[in-house]
Amino acid sequence: MRIDNESMRSVRAPEVASSARATMPGWARDLLAAIAVLVTAFGPLTRLTDGLSPLGWIIVGLPVALMFLRRRYPWVVLVACVACFVAVSLTLALTPFSALPTGIAVFTIATRTNRRTVLVTVLSVLVVMIPASIFHEWASLHPLTMLVLVMVGFFAAAGDAIRSRRAYIDEITQRAVQAEQTREAEASRRVAEDRLRIARDLHDTVAHQISVINLHAAVAGRAIDDDPVAAKSALATVGTASRRVLSEIGDLLSTLRAPDEAQPLAPTPGLGMVGALIEEFEGFGLHVTARIEGDLIDLPAAVDLAGYRLVQEALTNAHKHGSAPRAHVWIDRDEGTLRLLVTNPAANDADQSGPEQGGPEQGGPAIDASAGHGLLGIRERVTGVGGTLSAGRDGGSFRVEAVIPLQGEVPQVPA
User: What is the DSSP letter of 411?
Assistant: First the structure.
């Protein structure tokens, strides 16, 4: 099956998304965060203080080490960074970047949790950090307080934006995968429908000709010594049927290979061609009487085709399996219903009956329309246009009967 470029992009979407996220390894991002905290912490502090005590080195250096743990323990790192900020505000000097470790910790959490959790976390952090900064500067509107607000708020918004973008990419990716799966399922369904249609059409157009060839070849084989004239006639019928079946197979293959299926090579058969079909079977030695009531010209295309195939299949079975070479066709069309009935004498001897005429394959004379591939295909056609089909032995006859409603929309079944 051919897959276009769009389908390939859909299949590879998850790989592209994951590779985009993994452009920089996690340890490299942690290292960059640690370097930023280290430079922004010790640089300003060396200018604001005379020197750092061992405790001061620990308080200032702890957030640097915490940057390597933020992805594994984000909440613990956040609490530790807030505690370090409070400790710096009480023992050392605050700088414009003192809230950077806390902002990075908030950013990490914001990329992993929902927006409501982020808002609650930011408010909780600010409730602790704002009083600490105010206590350090002894002024409620000191610029450092605003910097803390801006720093924490900025990193929280950035983390939430990245989380939203990732969620959007994941959703688009999932939709692309589902769309691809849907296309694959639809393609498989269409392939199955095409295979069924081809098999049904091949049976409808070829099977009865093959049956005629087989039957008359057997007749010719039995009569070639005793009745050369009958053998010659049977062989002529075999030649005619074989040429016809080759032509029909060629037309079917040409239709399958044609790029435009909307232009069939031959007109679609219908009940208006039943007369020619009966004459064909008459030429094969089957005597057919027909009774047609009502107008068959303006039937829906799907109903017209289904009716023709039913008559064709029933006459083929009658010619192949009937106990006598005769059959009767009755077609009745009124305002809302099309009725079709084909009967023929049924063989009483099981050896003279095939699977579609109540032979031993069915385990007795009572059968339904599902017996045999031909009747199965006819049942599918009839039920496809909303009709019902019954087939089986009725006394000494075999009956194939269909009732198809003509009111309302009729589904268009492929030819």
Answer: -
CB under 8 Å, gap of 24 or more: what pairs does 61-66 form?
A: 63/37, 63/101, 64/34, 64/37, 64/38, 65/34, 66/101, 66/105
Q: Are 159 and 108 in contact (CB under 8 A)?
A: yes
Q: In what order do the strands lie in the sheet with 388-394?
A: 287-293, 326-333, 337-345, 397-405, 388-394
Residue with tokens 């009111």: 407
Instruction: Extract the tokens encoding 115.
Output: 């927006």
First to last CA, the chain: 24
How far is CA 205 from each of CA 16, 124, 170, 311, rounded to the nearest angstrom? 51, 80, 52, 12
Which SS3 state, helix, strand or coil, does residue 390 take?
strand
Q: How far apart are CA 146 and CA 204, in angstroms?
A: 85
Query: What is the H or E stretch that residue 288 is in?
Result: strand 287-293
| CA–CA dist 85, 80 (Å, integer) | 9
Q: Which of 100, 125, 115, 119 is nearest to 32 (CA)?
A: 100
What is the set of domains in the chain, with CATH numbers? Answer: 5-181 (no CATH), 271-415 (3.30.565.10)
Residue 321: CB atoms within 10 Å: 21
pTM for this entry: 0.46
* pLDDT tens digit sequence for 254-264: 666 655 544 44
- In tens, the pLDDT along 125-144 reads 999 998 888 877 664 445 67
Lowest mean pLDDT across 124-133, 209-218, 389-398: 209-218
Question: Rounded CA gap, 132 and 81, in Å?
Answer: 13
